[in-house]
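Lesson 9: reading folded outputs for more than one chain in a single document. The general rule is that every protein is listed as its sequence immediately followed by its structure tokens, and records are never interleaved. Here is the first one.
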Amino acid sequence: MSPRERFWRDRRVLVTGATGLVGSHLTRELVSLGCDVVALVRDWVPGSPLLSEEWAGAVTLVRGDVCDQAAMERILGEHEIASVVHLAAQTIVPIANRNPVSTFETNVAGTWRLLEAARRSPKVSEFVLASSDKAYGQAAVLPYTEETPLAGLYPYDASKSCADLIAQSYAATYGTPVAITRCGNFFGGGDLNWSRIVPGTIRSVLAGERPVIRSDGTLVRDYIYVGDAVEAYMTLTERLAENRALAGRAFNFSTEIPLSARALVDLVLARMGSDLEPIVLGEATHEIAEQYLDASRARAELGWAPRYGLEEGLDRTIAWYRERLAR
């Protein structure tokens, strides 16, 4: 048995946001390692792999909301949770701009309530929080390092800055064993948010329709394949268990290949063998022009590196949608 298998075997883990892209892939990997996974589900998402694939039968599903602190305390206590991976969030930037209060409730209040529940639970030994590159806001110097100040301005960005700082506060004040991930834009099979650029482009091409770019195509971002993100969350949890000095610290995870929205769409089109011309709407507002990360700390201190990278990740993602949408 490998060190990873020994660590996760029979470990009781709470995954919030488990019906989402990263949450469903992470949960599946944990199940494959013999982990005892409790998945928090707020809304029933029929197309989510967590709710539709055979392996999901090994997961304990709990209906609830991270904003319900009493429920969080019950879950952590009754299920004797050792590790928490907190992924639950409202993650769509346009939705955050239209609905800031619900975004702040979920992303900020949900974080402090789950952290407070963990503080009251003697069994919790690792807590990994999903922050974001958006927590940095707009910085004059790129790429972002972990020393870049958190200065989110727009609703989604500000919610991630707040949650990130709250986690650091719990670590510093109460010794809560929480560490923080800051990742770029996720992509991979199972993403059902069609407004996102990768699944939206793939679905359009498979339907023979021109893909749509919501922005003017010049916004530059990091993109990280879901398999590499899963490796990041698992690695950080394992290292946190080995070294409590990581509590309160944040780590960037990135393939370190910044791309404009148009360049990413063109890359997807090329890998699908399509000559369709994108429709550029130029409608995106309140978004930062350029954001990308330096992941050298995660490489040096955690031993993490992307296993798949950008192009292999896109090929795997395209293959997933070809199969599923063909059904």
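And here is the second record, again sequence then tokens.
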Amino acid sequence: MSCGEPHETDCAEVLDHLYEYLDREMPEGDRAKFEQHFDECSPCLEKYGLEQAVKKLVKRCCGHDAVPTDLRSKVMGRIELIRSGQAVPEQPVVDPARTPRESGPRPTRPGAARTPGDAGENRA
């Protein structure tokens, strides 16, 4: 996304690093550039406001849930791999306290079209 106006800091860069800004995980110099950009660019300011509201909502609704220690360790390990530029393992991060879903047909929305193979139907 770009507003079409020239800025010292490009809209794409601001949006790519928006959560670093929101989480205060960037150097003060970069924060100052982003603040200047938000002063100049209403589409990015709007996106910032939306993401800030979502972040507050998630914190309010889910902020009290305890995170299993090993899940936190796995996520932090992935973050470190990404920051160091190394490849990220293909294994999904799962909560060991939750049991895997049973394999079988996936539920469909009411009124959704079914295709051969849904719910174990035989293909012709």
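What the second record shows: DSSP finds five helices and no strands in the chain.
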